Amino acid sequence: MTTPTVTKHYVDLEHGQLHVRLAGPDDGPALLLIHQVPSSSQMWEAVIPRFADRGHRVIAVDLPGYGMSDPMPTAPELEDYAAVLFAALDQLGVVRVAIVGHHTGSSVGVAMSVADPSRVTAVAVWGYAMVDPEHAAVLASEQPPVFDDTYVDDVADWWHRRKRWATPGNDGWVMARSLMEYVVAGHHRPDGHNAVGRADHRALLDAVTVPVLFLTGDREMLDADTRSAFEVAPPSVELYGFGDEGIDIADDIPERFAAVVHEFVAKAAAPVA
């Protein structure tokens, strides 16, 4: 594998600036990477060059309020995130795109495919949050951090909860990067989770018409929810299990992850014989 150059840019939009990482040939099939929250496009750092090496024009975004992107002026819904990303694609000259999402990014990707299926060739999602009402209510009501003497306890609690889901032996830099992203999100830390909790994921799934690939692993926190969603999904949805893998799939086995996703989106984009 070569090491394609990854460049960082800002796209000027109505709400402010959106930070993006770009890699791969300008004339390659566009591939939009949407992170989980509270994270950023940096979570894709191990797979961006692998997708670019396979000929994709890779566009990894920081959702509004995360990473280096400006927040939205009001509490966003999934449809608001989708509209912002379509506007960013317009600025980048991208008409049609395949999407790869992780957790909240998965929900945004599916929402994009429902909002304008003519622009989305396929969606590959790691973890689909069609959760029970109680879990949805927790996400919808998550509060922003309080920056007082209790903040260090808040961060420590997050560290211990996050570490339970990390892959033993491969959690050093991944944990440190995740911590930085958690802190940088600031007051907007719960925005994405709030939007996910308020959304009707069953209705979104029922409205899907483009090819969708559900990706999961035995240690993924949304494994059971993703598999349950697949049982009631329309025929255009497929399921792929990675076995003993979890939340840090893009860091743990980036080559296999990129290969599986590339094969799926390439098949979806191929002309019907």
Structure description:
The structure is a single chain. It contains eleven helices and eight strands. With 273 residues, it is α/β, with parallel strands linked by helices. An eight-stranded mixed beta sheet has the order 1-2-4-3-5-6-7-8, with helices on both faces. Helix 5 (151-165) packs across helix 6 (172-184). The model has no long low-confidence stretch (mean pLDDT 96).
Number of helices: 11
Strand content: 15-25%
Low-confidence stretches: none
Spatially, the strands of the biggest sheet line up as 1-2-4-3-5-6-7-8
The chain-level structural class is alpha/beta
Order of helices and strands: EEEHEHEHEHHHHHEHEHH
Helix content: 40-55%
Rg is: 17 Å
Please provide the count of β strands.
Answer: 8
> Between the first and last Cα atoms, what is the distance in angstroms?
31 Å
